[in-house]
Design a protein that fits this description.
InterPro entries: MFS_trans_sf. With 177 residues, this protein is mainly alpha-helical. Helices cover 58% and strands 0% of the residues.
Length: 177
């Protein structure tokens, strides 16, 4: 390092350590000796095989971004689940142009709705099932999170959302426009 020059931080620290070493030896009355050498650096990693490039992630936080995206999808699915009955109820009650839309929705529709269309109380039940289920489901979920963590319940509930939306998507009719 040049006298009066700035140099890198490592050079400055090495110069300070060398000066301290010399001062310590002078204080003890010994002839100054060279300071101990720093430990050797580890060798660099070997180059990749011919024809192959060493590739790292495109984004260093790729897994974190993916996890945040998947977690936000759970919220989006929740919002769509709240909205879907509101838009589907008029069709399920026979008030749309292609109503009733029961073909392909579920094989047990005749047992639940013998007339083939939702009546007033049945429509209210369809609209109220999601909030009631959310209220009742939050109680065991709150007890399971400390023991299972946050990731496992989120993945399990995402699978349930996936199955529910697959049923809606695969129903023969019943598309909400």
């Amino acid at each position: 390092m040049e006298a009066g020059g700035r140099g890198s931080r490592a050079e400055r620290l090495a110069a300070i350590a060398e000066a301290a070493h010399h001062l310590r030896q002078e204080a003890e009355g010994r002839e100054p000796s060279p300071p101990p050498s720093p430990p050797p650096r580890p060798p660099p990693p070997p180059p990749p095989a011919p024809g192959r490039r060493r590739r790292g992630p495109v984004c260093p936080r790729q897994r974190q971004w993916l996890a945040a995206f998947v977690a936000s999808l759970a919220g989006a699915c929740g919002g769509m689940a709240v909205q879907y009955p509101v838009t589907a109820l008029p069709l399920l009650q026979g008030e749309g142009e292609d109503a009733p839309v029961w073909a392909g929705v579920a094989p047990w529709r005749d047992a639940l709705f013998p007339t083939g269309e939702l009546q007033g109380a049945q429509a209210a039940l369809v609209g109220a099932l999601l909030p009631v289920g959310a209220l009742l489901g939050s109680l065991p979920a709150g007890a399971l999170v400390p023991s299972l963590g946050l990731r496992r319940p989120l993945l399990a509930l995402s699978l349930l959302y996936l199955v529910g939306w697959a049923f809606i998507f695969l129903s023969g009719q019943g598309r909400v426009r």
